[in-house]
Amino acid sequence: MKVGDTHYRSIWRDEGTGAVRIIDQRWLPHDFPVVTLEALEDFATAIREMWVRGAPLIGATAAYGVACEMARDPSDASLARAYDVLHETRPTAINLRWALNEMRSALGRLPEDQRAEAAFAKAARICDEDVETNRLIGVHGLEIIKEIAARKGPGEPVNILTHCNAGWLATVDWGTATSPMYHAMEAGIPIHVWVDETRPRNQGAQLTAWEMNGAGIPHHLIVDNAGGHLMQHGQVDMVIVGTDRTTASGDVCNKIGTYLKALAAKDNGVPFYVALPSSTVDWTVSDGVAEIPIEERDGREVTHIYGRDEEGRARFVQISPDGTPGDNPAFDVTPARLVTGLITERGVADASREGLLALFPERRETA
User: Fold this and answer.
1) Which residues pair with 254 in a beta bridge?
2) Pathway membership of this protein (predicted)?
3) DSSP of 88-130
């Protein structure tokens, strides 16, 4: 996507220097820092401390982390260490493990002197495939938006609610939940997006709203608890969110608060869709509530908030009393029964084992 007149991916390798660069998302929307990641520890820190975030982008970042480590030391011990260090950074997003498995499988059988070049090529393919996957998610999601638009009056926008940021910043490009929105804009279909603030990290307020501004998509920022009210009054036509891990039975693990949106959507007859690449499906897990590990993050993310004051200074401020601890589960699980459909690169699946296997029959032996 473009920032100003320049097209960016969220992670890329500089053609001239070979350096791996990312947009450090912690400081958006008030600053736009681009930083270089070099050592394995840089990549681990970027993932753990959310310089990058979003399941597909976490996976892509891990892939390049392995590649940079192979350039430093292509030994078996170094490959194993890179896998372990990166795998321990965040427990919930399954794309992290998927990308690391892809890299280990591709490199483990190669002679050491071929591993660095092969690792960078594989990481680049993971990124390119992510872009195409997310483009296709948008193509299939667009059909849903078209169907809703056809039932509305001339020029009346399709009102979409989204939670957290599942945009191009959370992937390599296009995004998952936002890809259908970008495709709708290109197709000339009027849409309007309700952007949940998404406490405590405010990815909606800071990232999704920034993306909507940049793309010229009409939108409003709302507090997290406003979605149900808007649905009750007929102001939401559909919900689209992303996911960090989806079970083989269609349960969806996404940013904390997603489950409450799904409950409100179910109660008000609002379709609730989840957009995801197939790499986000964990075919080894069936019960999301019981089996998916939920990341517990620092309570300071709850007690403090980042923003820009009236004098134009961007800074953190404390919003709670001294001595009040913050509890901070980062994700929740939405049961499949609340999900209208899963928008994937191969089409829209029912949120069920059979629904997913209808699109991905090659997984029948493992699901």
Assistant:
1) 332
2) Amino-acid biosynthesis; L-methionine biosynthesis via salvage pathway; L-methionine from S-methyl-5-thio-alpha-D-ribose 1-phosphate: step 1/6
3) TS-SS-HHHHHHHHHHHHHHHTS-HHHHHHHHHHHHHHHHHHH
User: pLDDT at position 352, please?
Assistant: 98
73 is catalytic: no
The verdict on whether residue 90 carries a ligand-binding annotation is: yes
Out of 24, 42, 224, 244, pick the active-site residue: 244
Annotation: CATH topology of 2-129? Four Helix Bundle (Hemerythrin (Met), subunit A) (1.20.120)
Mind listing the pLDDT tens digit for each residue in 136-193? 999 999 999 999 999 999 999 999 999 999 999 999 999 999 999 999 999 999 999 9
* Architecture per CATH, 139-363: 3-Layer(aba) Sandwich (3.40)
**Contacts for 237 with CB less than 8 Å, ≥ 6 apart:** 148, 152, 158, 159, 160, 270, 271
**Annotated binding residue 54:** yes
CA distance 149 to 155: 9
Show me where the domains of the chain are located: 2-129, 139-363
48 labelled binding-site residue: no
Q: What is the pLDDT of residues 76-107, one digit of tens each?
A: 999 999 999 999 999 998 999 999 999 999 99
The answer to whether residues 191 and 160 touch, using CB atoms and an 8 Å cutoff, is yes
| Closest listed residue to residue 99, CA positions, set 135, 137, 74, 125 | 125
> Matching CATH topology for 2-129 and 139-363?
no
- From residue 298, alpha-carbon distances to 107, 274, 364 in Å are 35, 27, 39
